[in-house]
Amino acid sequence: MYQSVDLEQLRRDNPRPLFKSPFEHQKDAFEKLSKLFTFTDQEHKAGILVLPTGAGKTFTSVNWICRNVLPKNAKVLWLAHTGHLLEQAYDTFKSNLLQVPPQRRSINMRLVSSDPEHSNASQIEPSDDILIITTQTAISNTETTALDEAGRPRQTAFERFLKHARQTRLFVVLDEAHHAPAYGCRNLLIGGSRFAEGIRQKVPGCYILGLTATPSYSDARRRGWLWEIFKDGIIHQVEKADLISRNILAVPHYVQKNTGQEIAVDDRLFDRLERQHQDLPEDLIERLARDSGRNDYIVDDYLANRAAYGKTIIFADRWFQCVYLKEKLLQRAREQGIPLKVDAVYSHVDARANTVEERNQRNAAENTRILHQFRNNELDVLLNVRMLSEGTDVPNVNTVFITRQTTSAILLTQMIGRALRGKAAGGGPDKEVANIVFFVDNWKKVINFATPEGQGGRAETEPRTRGSYPIEFISIALVEELSRQIDSGLVFADRSFLDSLPVGWYETEVLASTVEGTETYREFVVVSASAQPRFERFLEHLKTNLPPHWEDDCLDEAVMQAQAAQWIAEFFDPTDNTSNLLDADLLKLSRHYAQARQVPPFYSFTERQQHDLSQIAGDLLEFNEFVVQDKLTDLYHDGSRLWQRFYKSYERFKTAFDAERNRIYHLRKFGSVPDVQVHAPIQRTLEQRELTEDEKQQVYHRDNYTCQCCGKQREPGRRVKFEVDHIVPFRFGGETSLSNSQTLCSVCHKHKSINSINFRLHKSPLSLPKPTLAILRLSTAEYADEELRRVINLFYYCKAVSHIYCDTRPNSKYRYKWEVVLYEGNNPEWLLKHKPELLNFIQQDMGCHLVADILVR
């Protein structure tokens, strides 16, 4: 996305522009910004502007930059961690360019990210005046190891832009500045162990402005890094309560409505929501959108509270949900004699070509007309599909309906923000309160959905818990142990019950990269009594032997796994890894230490002694079953104990007790217990070619039930056969282990054959490209992107494909020209040499005859 703006023509076209009037808190910010960033010397300065959500951080900074930075011919580098934030900044610059004084005649603006709608990093030019780019893209285009045709270090377009900025000065803005302490972002800005020099060194005298709502950290090291980056501290700060008192923001009134809908959560969905931090899958969103009973509940709630709600925006998820809600609202209103005006705007239609649904798709002109009606109070309710969450200005909205829960804090904040304008900001003469109505469902597991600030939600810098809490982990481990005991054919425990309970756990915090940017995660490492000394020795080793690059929030997974395997061999026993989680635990500990420079806190399991099932079994050994059952029932339901947390049913608890009682009986009568070996790790002989069924399920779960080669997933109504594949084939010495296994669909498994290909790696291990592109169509019941992904990933010998953009619908931009995006480190030229073969495969074998070109980057 690029625009060269002729400012002189813009001024001629707008001779009497109406400028947005800043509020007093924004005027105060202008004054403080001008006081710090004077442009009178070459001294480097950096500070943070702290404004709460809804206070206009973007407008404040962009307006000041247009009036004070661009007139100095300084370049602007705007960094943000999501595409939405980039687009918001781009649009704000466009609407404020008339604020630039007459001495500037033109401005070149460019927006860069991995989004195909935006410019590519290679298109950056030194002549760009405003470069708006994702932090991740800027990091990946800094001090790369790539070589040019002559074998010299390749200078990226981004680095050339920075070099040119030395002549003009550079003003850097980091949106969501609390992400600055992240290893990659910090190195980008001020240099360190990853980059020899940061922007601060490469462009001496540059200015850096951070924007955030919460410039605080509980972690002392990250807090220290924040103020080392922004050495001049907080430039200006405004409290939310102050803006509410001035009626700039309305008081949010949160209302929760339970739909009564019960939603089961399997392990795959729970892993998607809690461990991968993605939002609800599309099939579940569609199911909720089509639920007529649920939609009727939303309609009835609005009509029952219509007077209190006033002017209302309803956020829906599908166009057909908008249509249903609109028709039901109008029908019920007529039946009740209520004069109600409702309409909907939507643009994203999931229907296929040539259907009635697609012919009913709204065009832009109609959406504009309906929005104009809503702004002019000609409508009472406006339904929309993700169109009003991003910056559409309708200030006098009293209520928003959020029709489903989301894990995306950004999306939630956008939707809530549509109603927060106070009466001083155009929200209406009587508006003091904004109604935020949430429609929630009954989830069978606790999901960490995004929650508004002050309503139990996390602050922006508060870590998010990932994985199981310690007590939940103990419960899982005890139930798995019970299953192994039963499977052994003998209900016997082979050790004291307390040996099955941990002595405590480490609590780690790790800053890691996600699809949306960087986030801090809290995770737990549960420690047994026998392993505790070994964990302590391992942590002592880290203090003097951990390389600095382990701080990186984008650390290569293959490097980490290889190092974890060495640590296990050096410091631990096989009995410490019966759950196959030891490598993950060591990575949590080491990354915490690398980032915090201190050992994570250890919490003792203080209630451990109160749960000695061996002692209970010994005390009840000589009592009859009637007495035993009565005692155990009382114990299980004792609220001061954790037995119900450990075992979800009394029957499991009773079985665990029986195993302990049998062990103690044998011990007292015979002096020993049967050697059931329920805890011994699986020892395989060379003849054992397959994982156990339980281990196969672990592989499927780890790989998110997704083929690691073509990306095929299970979908309702679609049969997919998954197989666990040896990365290094068994016949060539590949071990039968979790680390040497990957999930493939039957088609990819057949095509991989006996080759050693690790599709869990994103970078090709090949030093030279393969001479031929192997094209073999093995199935006709696949999506186009799956077929193409398989061919390309097999060519690169890894999971090289990040995204494929292809679409056969008539109005799609990808109907005639498909696009393949590779992960960093995979050379696109390798594949482009086979472009004719690839196009022939798409056109002839896949039947997509209209595709005329394919772009690879």
TrEMBL record:
<feature type="domain" description="Helicase C-terminal">
    <location>
        <begin position="298"/>
        <end position="490"/>
    </location>
</feature>
<dbReference type="GO" id="GO:0005524">
    <property type="term" value="F:ATP binding"/>
</dbReference>
<dbReference type="InterPro" id="IPR027417">
    <property type="entry name" value="P-loop_NTPase"/>
</dbReference>
<keyword id="KW-0067">ATP-binding</keyword>
<dbReference type="Pfam" id="PF01844">
    <property type="entry name" value="HNH"/>
</dbReference>
<keyword id="KW-0347">Helicase</keyword>
<dbReference type="GO" id="GO:0004519">
    <property type="term" value="F:endonuclease activity"/>
</dbReference>
<dbReference type="InterPro" id="IPR003615">
    <property type="entry name" value="HNH_nuc"/>
</dbReference>
<dbReference type="InterPro" id="IPR050742">
    <property type="entry name" value="Helicase_Restrict-Modif_Enz"/>
</dbReference>
<dbReference type="GO" id="GO:0016787">
    <property type="term" value="F:hydrolase activity"/>
</dbReference>
<dbReference type="InterPro" id="IPR014001">
    <property type="entry name" value="Helicase_ATP-bd"/>
</dbReference>
<dbReference type="GO" id="GO:0004386">
    <property type="term" value="F:helicase activity"/>
</dbReference>
<dbReference type="Pfam" id="PF00271">
    <property type="entry name" value="Helicase_C"/>
</dbReference>
<dbReference type="InterPro" id="IPR006935">
    <property type="entry name" value="Helicase/UvrB_N"/>
</dbReference>
<dbReference type="GO" id="GO:0005829">
    <property type="term" value="C:cytosol"/>
</dbReference>
<dbReference type="Pfam" id="PF04851">
    <property type="entry name" value="ResIII"/>
</dbReference>
<protein>
    <submittedName>
        <fullName>DEAD/DEAH box helicase family protein</fullName>
    </submittedName>
</protein>
<feature type="domain" description="Helicase ATP-binding">
    <location>
        <begin position="38"/>
        <end position="233"/>
    </location>
</feature>
<dbReference type="InterPro" id="IPR001650">
    <property type="entry name" value="Helicase_C-like"/>
</dbReference>
<keyword id="KW-0378">Hydrolase</keyword>
<dbReference type="GO" id="GO:0003677">
    <property type="term" value="F:DNA binding"/>
</dbReference>
<dbReference type="InterPro" id="IPR002711">
    <property type="entry name" value="HNH"/>
</dbReference>
<dbReference type="GO" id="GO:0008270">
    <property type="term" value="F:zinc ion binding"/>
</dbReference>
<keyword id="KW-0547">Nucleotide-binding</keyword>
